[in-house]
Automatic annotation (TrEMBL):
Alphabetized GO MF terms: oxidoreductase activity
Signal sequence extent: none
Annotated family: Belongs to the LDH2/MDH2 oxidoreductase family.
PANTHER family per the UniProt record, alphabetical: MALATE DEHYDROGENASE, OXIDOREDUCTASE-RELATED
Native source organism of the sequence: Pristionchus fissidentatus
Lineage start: Eukaryota, Metazoa, Ecdysozoa, Nematoda, Chromadorea
The keyword Oxidoreductase is annotated on this UniProt entry: yes
Name under which the protein is recorded: Malate dehydrogenase
InterPro entries: Mal/L-sulf/L-lact_DH-like_ah, Mal/L-sulf/L-lact_DH-like_NADP, Mal/L-sulfo/L-lacto_DH-like_sf, Malate/L-lactate_DH-like
Oxidoreductase found in the keyword field: yes
Pfam families with a match to the protein in the record: Ldh_2
Keyword field: Oxidoreductase
């Protein structure tokens, strides 16, 4: 037991989430063949230039770039550089506001209802989670629901924001209707992500960040750009029938709930997406379900609903971090079904990608993503990101 404890301490000291080097393949310690590397600060500079050129206030542009960079650094490429042009178009076409501050509409000791005032999603999200943390420090729990928001990037950014301030954090958002509810032939719910971040010891943490569809739409878009097919649980065609063609899913169909079709348990993903919709759209008085504007459209404001929860764990049983660490270590030490792959907890995979970025000195991007960045830079008249 003492040796096991020492080993975990050593692993955490190195920043590793896995309990043995055998769980980290050589492929995970190097960029994929053909990838282009961009230093983190350089990509951040490029993103800020693009967003400010589109009209956003500098502070708003930086908040958005922070979230997009974090998505790429953690390996969630669907929500990083891949999303930049969408925000640029939102600003250029006036479907979201380029400056201003969110407003509190109703407030109690542990809760707040916020009007995001159609600002960039990260501006609304940062404001709301900081408010939730403040309330949690005073009341034990802070629950903030916002209407009038926009796409806010990876949900994990906000749950980790609370965690870095000493709380357990949860974040949720509704999105454009991209999911077929079980047995439906019309998209009526979004990818509706759920995130929870809870700290263990010595920098270790459990960070869940997941869509309630099998995947986010961005992963299907990336597969389309790369000319790859997708698994049968990802999406369906215009009739709600399973498809493995990303072009068909993106242009004609929609995503399936987490689990896939009904036979493989997709109704559970449908239920989880509905939970998020109730927290975000219904509770916050925002647009919900099929009433949210369709994906890719700027014809109307998004009016997304979002929910941010901070929990001061000291308001509950003492020594939360110790038990959290024991929980994560117990999961990782379970007997393996495949000796070449260790059991992990949420956030381990992202931590490995962060380590890869550190080792490379920058973020690895598929060449098609760099071509996309260069084209957008030319269109906006800003300097393209320089490669390492």
């Amino acid at each position: 037991q003492a040796m096991l404890s020492t080993r975990h301490a050593f692993v955490r000291l190195l920043g590793r989430r896995a309990v043995s080097s055998g769980s980290v393949s050589s492929e995970e310690r190097m960029a994929k063949q053909g990838d282009k590397i961009v230093e983190r600060r350089e990509m951040h500079r490029y993103m800020v230039d693009c967003i400010t050129k589109a009209g956003a206030a500098d502070s708003h542009a930086r908040q958005l770039a922070d979230v997009l960079i974090e998505g790429d650094v953690r390996g969630h490429y669907s929500h990083g550089l891949n999303r930049l042009e969408m925000y640029v178009q939102n600003l250029q076409e006036g479907s979201c506001e380029a400056s201003g501050e969110p407003r509190i509409l109703n407030e109690r000791a542990g809760t707040a209802w916020v009007d995001g005032r159609n600002l960039l999603g990260p501006v609304v999200g940062n404001f709301c989670m900081d408010l939730a943390v403040k309330k949690a420090k005073e009341a034990g729990v802070g629950w903030v629901a916002a209407k009038g928001s926009n796409h806010f990037g990876i949900a994990g950014w906000y749950s980790m924001r609370a965690m870095k301030q000493g709380c357990m954090g949860l974040a949720f958002t509704n999105t454009s209707p991209l999911m077929y509810p079980t047995r439906a032939a019309k998209p009526a719910l979004g990818t509706n992500p759920i995130s929870l971040a809870a700290a263990g010891k010595e920098g270790d943490a459990f960070v869940l960040d997941m869509a309630t569809t099998t995947v986010a739409i961005g992963k299907v878009e990336l597969a389309s750009r790369k000319g790859e097919s997708v698994p049968s649980t990802w999406g369906a065609d215009g009739r709600g029938k399973v498809s493995t063609d990303p072009e068909t899913i993106v242009k004609e169909g929609a995503l399936l709930p987490l689990g896939g079709d009904e036979r493989s348990g997709g109704y559970k993903g449908y239920g989880m997406a509905s939970l998020v919709e109730i927290f975000c759209g219904v509770l916050a008085g925002a647009h919900w379900g099929p009433h949210v504007r369709r994906w890719g459209s700027n014809a109307a404001v998004a009016d997304l609903g979002q929910c941010f929860i901070a929990v001061d764990t000291s308001a509950f049983a003492p020594a939360f971090a110790d038990r959290m660490q024991e929980f994560m270590d117990t999961m990782r030490d379970l007997p393996r079904s495949d000796e070449s792959e260790s059991v992990e907890v949420a956030g381990d995979m992202e931590k490995r990608h962060e380590e890869l970025v550190h080792t490379l000195g920058g973020i690895p991007y598929h060449p098609n993503q760099i071509d996309f960045a260069n084209n957008l830079a030319k269109k906006l008249g800003v300097s393209a990101p320089k490669l390492l």
